[in-house]
């Protein structure tokens, strides 16, 4: 099993898609890495040689910020927004959408489950 940037890549997948299991690497970055390492996109992970795995590791280390380092950087950016009191920071602190989405009906992913508040009784 190939282990790159602390992530075990799935054995039977093509390397182009397996690299996307690493946080910070998407479709485009995966193709760039494999082109610069001169590895065929259709190669399966279990077919890679040690030299090819080392070439991929070196390319990622040279060109990209991935996994823990990237997560820490994103966390620091959010903390900075919260500390300076920016609008986006306030939205992060409250757990609401930060990019202007509607919150009256949607945004359940950010807000969590509905918290139903008991209604008032009707007076007859």
Structural class: mainly alpha
Oligomer: single chain
* CATH architecture heading of the largest domain: Orthogonal Bundle
Rg calculated over all Cα atoms: 22 Å
Q: CATH fold name of the largest domain, please?
A: Helicase, Ruva Protein, domain 3
Content of β-strand:
under 5%
Task: Tally the helices.
Answer: 6
Provide the low-confidence segments as ranges: none
Strand order of the largest sheet: 1-2
Order of helices and strands: EEHHHHHH
Q: Largest sheet, if any?
A: 2 strands, antiparallel
- Fraction of helical residues: 40-55%
Q: What is the total number of structural domains?
A: 2
In total, the number of strands is 2
What is the end-to-end distance? 72 Å
In CATH, what is the class of the largest domain?
A: Mainly Alpha
* Overall pLDDT level: 91
Question: Mind explaining what this structure looks like?
Answer:
With 124 residues, this protein is mostly helical. It folds into two domains: 65 residues, Orthogonal Bundle (Helicase, Ruva Protein, domain 3), CATH 1.10.8; 40 residues, 30s ribosomal protein s13, domain 2 (Irregular). The longest helix is centred in the middle third of the chain and has 18 residues. It is elongated. It starts with a strand and ends in a 13-residue tail after the last helix. 12% of the residues are buried.
Concise structural overview:
This protein has 6 helices and 2 strands, in the order E-E-H-H-H-H-H-H. The chain is mainly α.
Can you give keywords for this protein?
single chain; 124 residues; mainly alpha; Helicase, Ruva Protein, domain 3; 30s ribosomal protein s13, domain 2; two-stranded antiparallel ribbon; 6 helices
